[in-house]
Design goal:
Oligomer: heterodimer
Number of strands of chain A: 18
Number of strands of chain B: 0
Largest interface: A-B, 18 and 18 residues
Distance between the termini of chain B: 6 Å
Strand order of the largest sheet of chain A: 16-17-15-14-13-12-11-18
Radius of gyration of chain A: 26 Å
Number of helices of chain A: 23
Helix content of chain B: 55-70%
Shape of chain A: globular
Distance between the termini of chain A: 58 Å
Strand content of chain A: 15-25%
Strand content of chain B: under 5%
Structural class of chain A: alpha/beta
Helix content of chain A: 40-55%
């Protein structure tokens, strides 16, 4: 039986037993190498209750997304000891991500009766202190949970003091950790409320096995945990590709015409307005939008331009494939046009046969299952974890519009004669500067997400980059790019290790959306200039091949670095700084800070 | 009841066949965690309710079958 079948069986059975069976078999299959995961991650779980049940759900949910989750489970209720002891199994495991799940009862000796007179700050104090200790011993991000504030007496009339206290404690948690880049909150309370508090708990499991959660809730919680894991791996989908007829509006534009399609405040048609508003929310969270529709181009453009109730307009879309080609072929063009991998695309289409075809032809694309009734489209999209970010940078919020501007640049490119003329017409302004602490989140994001124009693909975490910002032996450069279509934000990053008599360019990457704009030359030039200013004779460049970065295999050569080969290893590249002359870039305005 | 029961045991312990003599004493992997899973799965599969007092007694295939028969499961 393969992994897909195991997942399906576990889902059909609906029991933890079936999940455990699937989790064990999946682990065997990955360990034996019978199937290759797309990603691997070591995750530690600490808890005040029996966590084994939940972890099985998470292993299966991870495999569903091609991720091999290797778990570490701290002994029952040992979370304090595991965190406090620097030699514990937890630290020995070197987790890439750590979850600490606690119930309020495990943090305080107060009871339901006395607790409301206690202070929420005091209750979470042990957590705050454990978190601090943990970060001293581990580079792994730590995820804490909010307390489930279910009503204790749902039908009573008097205010529920315990519940109110837990809500206050939850607000305290958010306030305490919002600014901590290495700590995230898994909002267990809002998740339990979403699915229904009553359904979230299993009194039987609690009393038989010290596990508070029901099998139904663990299925949902596993997906939420996967959001954190995907964010940690940088595996967040980037682009939502939409069908038009029966998806963005009811009816068929080519047959029903502008006045005939269902879209607007009346019935039927309201559900499509609602759905478009949900999509627009994603756009404002930085999700790139594209259309892939079998239609006449001018019919769809007329809706985008003229329909009074369209929420989404032409300038929300970064790529438009409106034609009579097969949709899988159009997906390739969209990925190509946006310079992102097929596995960053999510496909949404009301037509089951289009979905089936896409799954068959492009299994690496995530094709979402949609219910038949469009009234539920919004909910389906809201319940996915594909676009779940741990945080949003300014660049994220603007990404949708940045890519849409990119489409206009491409149109310009086809209308000008030479490359140089095109580059000049963009009126680019490049700012190259040493990174500040305010750049940290964006820098880490670039490190995690950039695959194609990434010379070494070293995935440093937030703590590591943070220490580089202030370390004497590191220099962190950020490159911002503006042009006449808008601000692209921070799109380039270099981590330079200052080693005795030479500098080593440890990491050099550019966001895929600026590939072909020659701004990378300016960044290399700046590093060489700075090295020259400090009388460093030699700068070293590295290239480590990955499955995705062949684009830059000859990068150092192009930058006039000389290869030095030792054995069968990749050559290292050196630039003789004594021979350095700054380059000129007639099409760039460069600001050095 | 035989077929779904067999399926539950297959998932729980990787067993292809079951017989009445199998119990918590002699089936590898039938530990306290697996036992909880077994009890939850039995309740869901056969639509019966099992108290914790009953759960700790249902430690062999024979006892489980007898319990289910008493509950009217065929």
């Amino acid at each position: 039986m393969n992994i897909d079948d195991l997942i399906q069986n576990a889902r059909d059975a609906g029991t933890w037993l079936a999940q455990r069976h699937a989790a064990r078999k999946i682990t065997e299959i990955y360990t034996a190498g019978a199937e290759t995961p797309r990603h691997k991650i070591k995750v530690a779980f600490l808890s005040s209750f029996t966590i084994e049940f939940l972890v099985d759900y998470v292993i299966v949910a991870a495999a569903e997304q091609g991720i091999w989750l290797q778990p570490y489970l701290a002994p029952y209720q040992q979370f304090n000891q595991e965190i406090l002891d620097p030699k514990s199994g937890l630290y020995n495991f070197t987790p890439e991500l750590t979850f600490l799940f606690t119930e309020w009862q495990s943090l305080t000796t107060q009871t339901s009766q006395t607790m409301p007179h206690h202070s929420p700050d005091k209750m979470i104090a042990p957590l705050v202190s454990l978190t601090k200790t943990f970060h001293n011993h581990s580079a792994s991000p730590l995820i804490l949970n909010t307390f489930i504030a279910a009503p204790s007496w749902p039908l009573h009339i008097m205010p529920d003091e315990k519940t109110e206290f837990l809500r206050r404690a939850n607000r305290c948690l958010w306030e305490t950790f919002t600014a901590d880049p290495q700590t995230q909150i898994c909002d267990l309370d809002s998740l339990a409320a979403y699915g229904g508090y009553r359904q979230a708990f299993s009194p039987e499991m609690k009393h038989l096995a010290q596990n508070p959660f029901s099998e139904t809730f663990m299925t949902l919680l596993a997906k939420k945990i996967m959001s954190h894991i995907r964010a940690c791996l940088g595996q967040i989908s980037k682009c939502l590709v939409l069908d038009c007829d029966h998806t963005l509006w009811g009816g068929i534009i080519g047959e029903d015409g502008l006045d005939g399609i269902q879209l607007g405040p009346d019935v039927p048609g309201r559900e499509f307005v609602d759905f478009q508003q949900t999509i627009l929310e994603l756009y404002h969270q930085g999700v790139i939008l594209a259309l892939n529709s079998k239609n006449n181009d001018h019919d769809v453009m007329e809706v985008l331009h003229k329909h009074p109730h369209m929420v989404l307009r032409e300038n929300n879309f970064a790529a438009l494939q409106i034609n009579w080609n097969e949709k899988p072929a159009n997906m390739l063009r969209i990925a190509d046009e946006l310079n992102i991998g097929l596995d960053s695309l999510v496909f949404l289409d009301d037509n089951p046969s289009e979905r089936a075809m896409m799954r068959q032809m492009r299994p690496e694309i995530c094709t979402l299952e949609l219910p038949d009734n469009p009234a539920f489209f919004s909910r389906t999209l809201r319940e996915t974890n594909l676009f779940a970010h741990a945080y949003l940078t300014t660049e994220d919020r603007q990404r949708g519009s940045i890519y849409a501007a990119q489409r206009q640049r491409q149109q310009l490119k086809t209308s000008v004669a030479s490359l140089e003329e095109f580059l000049k017409s963009l009126e680019m302004v490049v700012t190259i500067r040493r990174a500040q602490s305010t750049d940290l989140k964006r820098a880490v994001q670039l490190i995690r997400r950039t695959n194609q124009f990434n010379l070494t693909t070293r995935r440093y975490n937030e703590a590591e980059v943070k220490s580089m910002l202030t370390a004497d032996d590191w220099r962190v450069y950020v490159l911002d790019l503006q042009d006449k279509f808008g601000d692209n934000g921070a799109v380039g990053l270099a981590l330079v290790a200052r080693e005795n008599e030479r500098w080593r360019i440890d990491t050099f990457l550019m966001s895929c959306r600026v590939i072909g704009r020659t701004v990378e030359d300016a960044l290399v030039d700046r590093i060489l200039q700075d090295a020259a200013a400090e009388n460093i004779p030699s700068v070293q460049g590295e290239y480590l091949p990955s499955t995705k970065n062949s684009l830059v295999a000859d990068f150092w050569e192009k930058m006039n670095f000389n290869a030095r080969k030792t054995g069968a290893n990749q050559p290292t590249w050196f630039f003789d700084v004594t021979q350095f002359h700054p380059k000129t870039f007639p099409w760039l305005k460069i600001l050095n800070r | 009841m035989e077929k779904p029961l067999k399926e539950i045991f297959r998932q729980a312990f990787d067993l292809e066949h079951i017989d009445d003599s199998m119990s918590i004493e002699n089936v590898p992997g039938w530990d306290s965690m697996a036992h909880v899973g077994l009890i939850m799965a039995l309740q869901r599969q056969f639509h019966v309710s099992i108290t914790s007092a009953q759960a700790i007694e249902l430690t062999s295939v024979a006892q489980i079958k007898e319990f289910l028969q008493q509950k009217g499961v065929t």
